[in-house]
Amino acid sequence: MLFNIIIILVILWFLGFSFSIAGNLVHILLVIALILLIIKLLRAA
Known about the structure:
The protein has helices at residues 2-19, 24-44. By secondary structure, it is mostly helical. The protein has one domain.
């Protein structure tokens, strides 16, 4: 479930970066995706 959210956020980041929509929102999505990935990795360890 968490991995799916990470994938969706990264895809949205790439789409936003490609079309230059919503400027800073693109980077916020990337940061959220990275934080979720780190949480997932820490819980798995």
